[in-house]
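Deliverable D5.2: sample structural annotation.
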Amino acid sequence: MSLRILRLELRRSAAPFAALAAAAAAALAVATYGGSASVLVGDGRSQLLVLIPVLLGLGAWQARRDRRSRTDELLAATPRPSGVRRTTLAAALGIGAALGFGVPLIAAMIHAWLTGVYVPAWMVPALVATLVHPIAAVWLGLAVGRLMPWVVTPPLLVVGGFLGLVTLTVFTDPEGDADGRYPSAWLLAPGSSEGINAFERLTPPVLTAQVVWAVALAAASLLLFVPTRHLRGLAAVPIAAGLGGTLALLPPHLSAGVALDDGAIEEVCTSDAPRVCARRGAPLLLPYLVEPGREVLAVLRERLPQAPARVVAIYYGNDSQPGLPAPDPSVLHAEVYTDEAGRIEMTRDELTWTLLMGAGTLACPDVAPTEWERYATARVVAAAWLLGERPYAPESLDEDLGWVPPASVTHPVYDALRSLPRDEQRTRVAALREAELGCAEGDRLGLLLGDGA
């Protein structure tokens, strides 16, 4: 393969278009990843759902070049082997797709590492497996275009590839798999970002299987395009080897291939007091949480006898959870709703109210549905008492906070609590906080207003 001819192919083939399409997909991932290196790779894998069909079509269109220019018979008569020409063309398109997709992702990851963001070592094989898929896609397009050099082949590949990947995603998505026994083969799907998010990681055997399978697909696609008709059967060799390797490496169920990333769930705290802490895998959260968290700590110190001394964020939303923390009177656990990138999805007022619910406690998990309204009312009224203002109506808050009872219920309870002597108000709210910390049995509304509430 001549370097001069490779340079010509890089300029005059579809390689620049493949690089442009791949760079656009990678730029979308970089624009939405939110500073977390693992989320960056997960978003990059999600973008493959759109990028792969485009690259399939580009490869098929490029494979028709000789037929379009009516030079196929002329080139077949030249002394230069046709396999060398096809190898050079495949190398050009593969380089374009890999560089276009890889440069923005790698640059963003290096930037994250230089700015102190957590970049785990397992990101390297995950990124390698992600970058091989665009190469395999454009090579498979070349192979299909050579086998079926028709005008309709490129658009059919684009549409068919997109519909096929979306169908695979919709009908094999493990979301909602309660028992964790979903087949682990889902982890090999090109667009699957399962196990690659702010707090999860894939196990080393799964990462190895992903790399092996991606390389097998790329090798098989290349063997379908480059050799003569009689040698195309060699494409079955890397597929069989890759399939055997992945089956040996993958665990029987998906849940066994995904684990919490110990480095990502490590707490990172402010250096000055009062300390506010977040998980290392959500770098965008801590700066947002510091000011409102400290304000809430000041409110609790001013109005309750035993107030917490620091804030620690826990997460709700699309990110995996390291588990609910054990009750600790010295810690204010902040229930923070985040998106997949770890960005906060709450307004300042919503965050303040959430921090003060139940006098600064997490809701107990086993409240009976018949008792929920009274229980939630007591928690909301305790927060309102600490803030010194009537509770918000549910319609003024985000729908994720839909457990807030209506104002027609909370306002009378708030007024009744405020009608008690000042010291009595404080004693009852403090008693509610103590009961919530230990999830003690009993009627919270009765505890707040008296047994006749």
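Annotation notes: The CA atoms of residues 357 and 380 lie 6 Å apart. Residues 267-449 form one domain.
The annotation will be released with the project's public dataset once the embargo ends.
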